[in-house]
Amino acid sequence: MADTNPVNEPDFAGQLEAWRVRMEAALAARLPAADAVPARLHEAMRYSVLGGGKRIRPALLFATARTLGLPEDRVEAAACAIELIHVYSLVHDDLPAMDDDDLRRGRPTCHKAYDEATAILVGDALQPLAIDLLVRDPALPDAAAVRLRLIGLLCEASGSLGMVGGQAIDLAVEGTRLDIAQVEDLHARKTGALIRASVLMAAECAPGLEPAHREALARFAAAIGLAFQIQDDLLDVLGDTATLGKAAGADREHAKPTHPAIIGIEESQRRVRLLHDEALESLRPFGDHAAPLRSLANWLLSRRY
After folding, report:
1. CA distance 48 to 32
2. How many structural domains is the chain composed of?
3. How far apart are CA 266 and CA 77, in angstroms?
4. Count of alpha carbons within 13 Å of 80, Cβ hemisphere only?
5. Residue 288 CA to chain centroid, in angstroms?
6. 92 Cβ neighbours under 8 A, 6+ residues apart
7. Are 189 and 162 in contact (CB under 8 A)?
8. Average pLDDT for 210-215
9. Which member of 6, 17, 113, 288 has the lowest number of beta carbons within 10 Å of its beta carbon?
10. Is the pTM value of this prediction over 0.70?
């Protein structure tokens, strides 16, 4: 198995933090001012988006850009767009009609800090803002065809065949017994689709990228997206609320179909390792240039929150 010891990459934690700080500033600059009318909605949008978080999807975008020799400025707007979609999904998932969560990123969820109607509107507003960034941001590639493909990737990943469809399936199967193939299909939609889009949106900004390299990145994203979700499921079982920033044990409480529930903790951990190896193998065509993506994959495997 490939070495996954984060000690071998002492600088990467600092890089992740630098990307996180960059994203806080980039998102803050692109959100409406809190006192702009309607002020309560804009305040709640900023509360939800700027409330912390690992910013994993933007990190994947930046790491892919570096692998392909792109400056981070070139993909920053795309990173913001995908994070806005991710945050909207969290705000809506936390609602009483869905997962009914009180805590997100160590703070009250949006509907608890404000109210349910405002939380719904926050999600509604973040979606068009994400698309607008891909249409208007001057740093993205100028070509209309590239911008249309970026919009298409984001819409496909977040719609009924991707993230939203995965959430619908997740709600429908609570308390039922799925086999592992069904669970992995669910995760490929609910979590994996946006992770895949994060990698491929950066690839779309790279002029002249060979189709074989794009396919290699797609394989990497599929493997790391599933590994990330299984790791999340494991942390829900093995972690604690203070560390996670959200209620531990929520999957079990809602009788959600997860890898630990179906194949057990040890086999789930083994599956994460196998997927991690698959992800790293897919990066072989990029040689040393893929060091940022390899480091990020290693961090995702070893994280505890």
Report:
1. 13
2. 1
3. 39
4. 31
5. 25
6. 98, 119, 120, 123
7. yes
8. 96
9. 288
10. yes
Q: What is the pLDDT of residue 3?
A: 38
In a domain, 25, yes or no: yes
pLDDT at 5: 37
Q: Distance between alpha carbon 232 and the CA centroid of its chain, in Å?
A: 12
Q: DSSP states of 219-254 as a string?
A: HHHHHHHHHHHHHHHHHHHHS-HHHHSS-TTHHHHT
- For residue 136, tell me if it sits in a domain: yes
Q: Which SS3 state, helix, strand or coil, does residue 108 take?
A: strand
CATH code of the domain containing 68: 1.10.600.10
CA 93 to chain centroid? 14
Neighbours of 176 (CB within 10 A): 9
Return the pLDDT at 300.
84
pLDDT confidence band for 1 (50 / 70 / 90): very low
Reduced to 3 states, what is the DSSP secondary structure of residue 104? Answer: strand
205 to 80, 114, 151: CA distances (angstroms): 15, 38, 12
Question: In this predicted structure, what is the pLDDT of residue 105?
Answer: 84
Residue 233 lies in a domain: yes
Note the Cα 114 to chain centre separation in Å: 24
Q: Is the pLDDT of residue 7 over 50?
A: no
Confidence of residue 304 (pLDDT cuts 50, 70, 90): low
Is there a domain that residue 2 lies in?
no
N residues, the chain: 305
Tell me the C-alpha distance between 129 and 83, whole Å: 11
Domain that holds residue 225: 9-302
